[in-house]
Backbone:
């Protein structure tokens, strides 16, 4: 127990320090490469001032998490599984960012190309859980002692969880410090969930991710010096989904990552409403832009969503404590 606490503290500290130390090195490098963010013309007008801010800064988080995880629990198969999933989705995001900001093709990867790559990596991860980690195919239901054996449907279920989380994080990444702060609380809850479900090595991975997100916020809080881009947001979403799947907390993740969920639902509702009724439910989607257009400052929106993420994390953990 004591050694695991030391590993968690080590991973969190290294993740934080590595992220803080990498920022001053990578941000000027990205600036010289002129990999500046392109701002949506249909978005809030005040965002236009952010045009040209370096993006692809998610590399900072990924490098910090990788180093911290390997130092804290480098021999753990569970940590390697979560780490490789994070790196795989970071690769998808990096490719998308590279096409958009380096090759200057505004659309980046086509939607179907992203989905196919996510599907392939999701299948590999799902099969690895069952046949390499011996995870089994059971899923626990929060706020109950019910356990559902998904059988052959478990791997497709993992794919859905992984893709939903990665794309939910991607949609959340729209304001300075929003995705990194929200993911800090989600990762913290996942780490506590790992402890509840007896997966101490995943608590180490969670600590590494928490530390890296906090370090990244030094440069990403308003006004941001760097954006994480799809490189970072997809990696973050995949990382928290991987932790939840390993710890048998997939359904609880719907609560723990509640901000990802409501951001995604706001987009779905907006699209369906406009396509069917030619009416918009929100002033703009994802939801954080709706509050901006209602007159909230960017900092107020971000703080509100951070607080919501903390609340959702508590709700998810309470459900798992009931199970435990």
Residues:
């Amino acid at each position: 127990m004591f050694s695991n606490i030391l590993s968690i503290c080590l991973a969190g500290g290294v993740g934080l320090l590595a992220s803080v130390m990498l920022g001053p090195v990578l941000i000027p490098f990205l600036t010289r490469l002129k990999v500046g963010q392109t701002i949506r013309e249909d978005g809030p007008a005040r965002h236009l001032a952010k045009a040209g801010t370096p993006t692809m800064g998610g590399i900072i988080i990924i490098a910090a998490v990788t180093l911290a995880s390997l130092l804290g629990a480098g021999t753990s198969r569970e940590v390697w599984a979560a780490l490789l999933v994070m790196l795989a989705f970071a690769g998808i995001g990096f490719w998308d960012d590279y096409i958009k900001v380096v090759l200057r093709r505004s659309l980046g990867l086509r939607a179907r190309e992203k989905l196919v790559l996510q599907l392939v990596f999701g299948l590999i991860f799902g099969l690895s859980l069952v046949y390499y980690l011996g995870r089994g195919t059971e899923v626990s239901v929060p706020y109950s002692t019910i356990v559902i054996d998904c059988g052959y449907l478990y791997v497709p279920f993992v794919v859905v969880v992984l893709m939903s989380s990665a794309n939910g994080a991607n949609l959340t990444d729209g304001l300075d410090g929003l995705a990194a702060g929200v993911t800090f609380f989600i990762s913290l809850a996942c780490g506590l969930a790992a402890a509840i479900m007896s997966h101490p090595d995943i608590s180490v991975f969670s600590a590494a991710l928490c530390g890296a997100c906090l370090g990244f916020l030094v440069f990403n809080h308003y006004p941001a010096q760097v954006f994480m881009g799809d490189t970072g947001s997809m990696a973050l979403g995949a990382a928290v989904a991987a932790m939840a799947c390993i710890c048998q907390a997939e359904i609880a993740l719907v609560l723990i990552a509640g901000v990802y969920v409501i951001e995604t639902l706001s987009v779905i509702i907006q699209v369906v409403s406009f396509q069917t009724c030619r009416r918009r439910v929100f002033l703009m989607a994802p939801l954080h832009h709706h509050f901006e257009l209602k007159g909230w400052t960017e900092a107020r929106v971000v703080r509100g969503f951070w607080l919501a993420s903390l609340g959702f994390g508590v709700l998810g953990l309470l459900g798992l404590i009931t199970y435990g």
